[in-house]
């Protein structure tokens, strides 16, 4: 028989709780491991683990900013360091751009070539440049060419400015030769057998070589970075006469090639027609 007015108190169910410890240094906070829904719904209190999450976000943002700061630029035909520094807003101008990329560019800041990769705003490592590779290859491997006949002045001909293109930048009012677009250090070949009549500085032409070919015409190679022959030397078709560059009055590295009836300026003839007349496809 139950006692009136008295009720049995229900037994409290025991819950097993796992404890998670979070904190930094010597401080620690014990939190119950709740279900996913409850954990998301919980309100973070000051000093809890949730309070340190923004630190990770800040670190991620900083990493992205560091990555964004390491930029590169690939040189295009007609580029120069001053123009690149201005367009890409390089702090310190072309001098800073050159200083950061000196090992890739070389001793002369004017000798940059299409395809060269420049680091913007960060000092670059010292990879082997296309120009240095071409120069070493040219030194190590003699050009294979016929001992007689005619050949192209460069192995892979890509014509830039053609013959007789009009323009005020030329004193004659037109382009007196053709330009082959090649990087600095490309091996240049005698188009035919003959004798070198001059090899040295040619004013606006920079370093140049002029060869009197055996048929009486003259072949001129201008803007060279290096000369491989000297005046009075005989050459055979395909023999290297120098390495391409960007010396003299130029906007970028290339070979300016002329065929003349005399060794002097103003006696030019169409070099493409000349080479084709000797069986050279161009």
SSE map:
Blueprint: E1 19-22, E2 29-32, H1 36-41, H2 53-69, E3 71-74, H3 81-87, H4 93-100, H5 102-105, E4 117-120, H6 130-140, E5 178-180, E6 187-189, E7 194-201, E8 207-213, E9 218-224, E10 226-227, E11 234-235, E12 240-243, E13 255-260, E14 268-269, H7 271-277
Antiparallel strand pairs: 1-2, 3-4, 5-13, 6-12, 7-8, 7-11, 8-9, 9-13, 10-12, 13-14
Helix pairs in contact: 3-4
Describe the structure.
The chain is of the alpha+beta class and 282 residues long. It has two domains: 49-127, LysM domain (Membrane-bound Lytic Murein Transglycosylase D, Chain A), CATH 3.10.350.10; 132-277, Glucose Permease (Domain IIA) (Distorted Sandwich). 21% of the residues lie in helices and 21% in strands. Strands 5, 7, 8, 9, 11, 13 and 14 form a seven-stranded antiparallel β-sheet that branches. Strands 6-12-10 form a three-stranded antiparallel β-sheet. β7 and β8 (207-213) form a beta hairpin. α3 (81-87) crosses α4 (93-100). The chain is elongated, with a radius of gyration of 36 Å. Mean pLDDT is 74; it is low at 15-68 and 126-144.
Describe this protein with a few key phrases:
282 residues; alpha+beta; Membrane-bound Lytic Murein Transglycosylase D, Chain A; Glucose Permease (Domain IIA); seven-stranded antiparallel beta sheet; three-stranded antiparallel beta sheet; 14 strands; 21% helix; elongated
* Cα separation of the termini: 121 Å
What's the number of extended β-strand segments? 14
- How helix-rich are the residues, as a percent range? 10-25%
What characteristic shape results from the CA principal axes? elongated
CATH topology of the largest domain: Glucose Permease (Domain IIA)
Judged by helices, strands and strand pairing, the structural class is alpha+beta
**Share in β-strands:** 15-25%
The biggest sheet amounts to: 7 strands, antiparallel
Count up the domains.
2
Q: Give the low-pLDDT segments.
A: 15-68, 126-144
Cα radius of gyration in angstroms? 36 Å
Number of helices: 7
Average of pLDDT: 74
What is the fourth-level CATH superfamily of the largest domain?
Glucose Permease (Domain IIA)
Q: Tell me the series of helices and strands, N- to C-terminal.
A: EEHHEHHHEHEEEEEEEEEEH
CATH class annotation of the largest domain: Mainly Beta
